[in-house]
């Protein structure tokens, strides 16, 4: 039977071994730092912020000035949705260190001034067409950034913004006042790769 001193010595070795194991065992993996927003990521946040800066007051104006009940209702939806989206874009920009503008663009200010000179049916027509054209432009920006961003925050935000913009385009079109011929045409599709084109041709000939 080991002596008391030997037991104490063995116990000391055992404790030292435990301490050594704890020291060399790897701890939990450190959280990876978020990917810094690119220029395109920042541009998306800026454009969505500026959209709200002119669409909120314009939607409020439409509820007072529009002749059509449908246009008044669309204006109400734009205000409510952009107030929600504005809070989110400010929060995301704050987390990512992106400085947002506090004023609409020069074009947006010009559109607001243009609408302020109109009343009745003329107001309704300009409201539907100016806002529909503007939504089409930001819609393509959101889609491109969403497709290629490396930033998780931007990806999530772009998904939300995309849903809002698509909803607003549909609402504006529901007024029956949108002049589709005045909208820019979609880009010309890229030529199909030769291998794919040849395969399609063979299928058609079968």
Automatic annotation (TrEMBL):
InterPro entries: DUF4142, Ferritin-like. Residues 184-206 are annotated as: Disordered. Residues 40-170 form the DUF4142 domain. Coiled coil: none annotated. This is DUF4142 domain-containing protein. Transmembrane segments: none annotated.
